[in-house]
Each structure stands twice: as C-alpha cells, then as structure tokens.
Design brief:
This protein has about 375 residues and is mainly β. It is about 5% helix and about 50% strand. Strand 10 and strand 11 form a beta hairpin.
Length: about 375
C-alpha cells in the first residue's frame, strides 16, 4: 500500500496541470570515440609458468559510443527527456551492460528533482566521486569501465564476476548490470544531494517481451537490488570539494549463495591548477560466499592551459578462494593535451605488479603460479561529440 501511495503522489505531481511542449521532443546526437595503441614494453611473468600465457605484447584498442537524446520543457516547467546509448563495436561488452545498447533512460526533471526509469546504472554508481584523472582514455581508477588498459596480468583472464571486469582495479563495482530500474535523484540542498534506486530483476531485456514477469528465484541473478547514495559538491574558501558515499544491496537468487552488496566512498579536492583525491569500494561476496573484492586508489593532477598531467595508484584485493587472495597494484603516469573542445591527445605509462599469493594457480584454465610485473607505454586520443 505504501508503494502505491508513493507512486500515486509522484504521478499527481507530474500531471497536476495540463502541460504540453510547444514543439515536442527533438532528437539530438552525441557520444565519443576513444582509441589507443599500447606496447607492453617490459614483462616479467615467470620462466617456467608464464602468467601472460604467451599473449601479444602490443595492441590497438578502441571504445566508441553514440548517444541519441531528446528533451522538451512542458508549460508547467517539467523537463521530459530520453537517452539511448549505442555501443560502437558489434562485439564485446561494456562495463555497465553486455549488449549492443549500453543504456536507455526516460526522465522527468523539475524542482522536485529527477525521476528516471530505464536500463542504466544504479544510484550508488551515478553519485560516485573519484580522484581526479588527467586522461579519460587512460585512467588510474577505471571509473566507468569505459577505459583502455594494456596489461596481461592474470586477473584479466578470469571470468568476469557479476558485471565487473576483473583485474582492472576499478572502484566502480557493479552488483547488477544495467537492468531496468526506477531512480530518484534529489535536487541539491546547499551542495548536498542524494539518490535512491530499485531494480526488480537483474536481467536487462528478457522481461520486456511477452506478458509475464521474470521468474522469482532465478539462479545467477542479484535481483531486487536497491541503492542509496549521498553526494556533496561545494566550495570551502578556495578549495572545491566533491564527496560521495553509497551502498547497494541485493537478493542473490542462487540457492545457497550469499547476497551480494557493495560500498563506495570518494573524495575529490580542487585547488585550482592542482587536484587530489581518491576512492574506495568493496564488493561483498562478489566472487562467491565470503569471497570479497576490495579496491582503493588515490590520484593527483596538475593542469596548465591545454595540458594536464596526472599520477595515480590503485590497489586491489581479490579473494578468489578461501585461501587465495591475489593482489594487484597499478601505478600510472598520464597526460592529456586538449587540441580543441572535446578533442584530446593522450599518453600514459602504466606499471602493474601482481602478487599471486602462494604457489598455486588462481583459477580454472590458469596453470601459471608465478607473480607478474609489466610496464606498458600507451598513446591515444578521444573525440567527444
């Protein structure tokens, strides 16, 4: 009954008075194109049991998205809009979804805040704050998973857990993919804001066909996921401050498997030309019962004119089994040159140190038992449109 009353009140607020856009909703197009070339210039992966599994030591990579959006403001001041994000590659998977369509939302925005419905990130992810990054092609903390990284560390060859990409030390840890959810984002109150979201089922598209809802207790899904997050964006004296704190809980529908939940916290300080900050994330039961993933990172940047340089470090603990907890440390020196609005040239040097934590292999199909170190040199560019 409470849910019905809340939804009824929200509906009444949206249709309180007749309101029509004069010219309807017009379509707009945006997106980005990232590309990079990387060389694993130095690699120490063990002589008898190579952790890199004889992989190529160079690669060309890209990440492309096209966004279709439209919005209109009604006579009562409410903005109504929609966004569809299309992956530019015909194969592969994004961090926040594993299909050709990366995300879809419809929203209502006004003095009351913003209400969204669609296949998109939860409130915790949307409100997350991270340390500053010099390059959006290469980042010390892979904030959204939409990054280009060159490392053959063994964790990258593990099966992806949940909707996360293993071995990249991201403090964006997903509990469920971009499944259909309802989101509320509050307006800002003196710099403070919050968000909440609820996902009935972790499948993104299957429930959108036919007349039946998805089965309950659907093995392999973290369904009935809910998130709550708070965010601050303000100024103290000459210092800009951004901070976040969020939590996501869920119901693991696999019998005998513990529920998965996640925490995130972040801080970003802006001192004019200098930036400093970091973030922390923990995914409980992300790799199985009592097998957690913990990642944290710090980073700093210096910007002058069109140039930005940055230095960052991330550390990840991956509890693969009850007795095996390999660790990954990534250090990155990066830089970006803004050639024009939305156009950058980027470069980075990445150091990876992987501690295998013992003398056994960490997963099925991985017989290597040695530690792993590498140095990668990367150049790339991005075009935002």
């Amino acid at each position: 009954m409470k849910r019905i009353l809340i939804l009824s009140g929200l509906f009444a607020a949206l249709v309180a008075s007749p309101a029509w856009a004069d010219q309807g909703v017009k379509l707009g197009v945006g997106g980005y194109y990232k590309n990079a070339f990387g060389i694993v210039a130095d690699e120490d992966d063990g002589a008898s049991q190579p952790q890199a599994l004889n992989r190529r030591d160079y690669s060309l990579k890209q990440d492309v998205e096209v966004w279709f959006s439209g919005s209109a403001k009604l006579d009562n001041g409410i903005e109504v809009g929609a966004l569809i994000e299309l992956e530019g590659q015909t194969t592969g998977a994004s961090a926040s979804g594993n299909g050709q369509i990366d995300g879809t939302i419809m929203y209502f925005k006004g003095n009351f805040g913003e209400v969204r419905v669609g296949d998109t990130d939860d409130a915790r992810v949307l409100k997350s704050v991270y340390g500053p990054q010099a390059s959006m092609v290469f980042s010390a903390d892979h904030m959204t998973g939409e990054y280009l990284s060159f490392s053959n560390n063994p964790l990258t060859t593990l099966t992806t857990y949940g909707n996360n990409i293993a071995g990249t030390n991201s403090t964006t840890q997903y509990v469920e993919p971009s499944a259909t959810k309802l989101i509320y984002l509050s307006p800002s109150f003196n710099g403070f804001s919050f968000g909440v979201s609820f996902t009935p089922d972790a499948t993104s598209d299957k429930q959108n066909i036919g007349g039946a809802t998805d089965p309950d207790n659907n093995a392999g899904h973290n369904s009935e996921a809910w998130s709550i997050a708070a965010n601050y964006d303000g100024q103290f004296s000459n210092t800009g401050v951004k901070a976040s704190l969020g939590y996501t809980g869920s119901d693991n529908e696999t019998v005998g498997v513990d529920d998965v939940d996640a925490f995130q916290a972040g801080l970003n300080l802006d001192f004019g030309m200098f930036g400093l900050g970091g973030s922390y994330a923990k995914l409980n039961n992300g790799l199985g019962n009592d097998l957690d993933v913990t990642v944290f990172g710090i980073s700093g940047t210096y910007a002058t004119g069109p140039y930005t340089i940055g230095l960052g470090w991330t550390h990840g603990d991956y509890e693969v089994t009850a007795t095996r907890e390999p660790e990954l440390d990534t250090f990155m020196l990066s830089g970006a040159y803004a050639m024009g609005p939305g156009i950058t040239l980027d470069a980075a040097v990445q150091f990876n140190n992987y501690d295998n934590d013992g003398t056994g292999a960490i997963g099925s199909g991985l017989t290597a038992t040695d530690d792993y170190d590498s140095t990668a040199i990367m150049v790339g560019s991005t075009i935002s449109f």
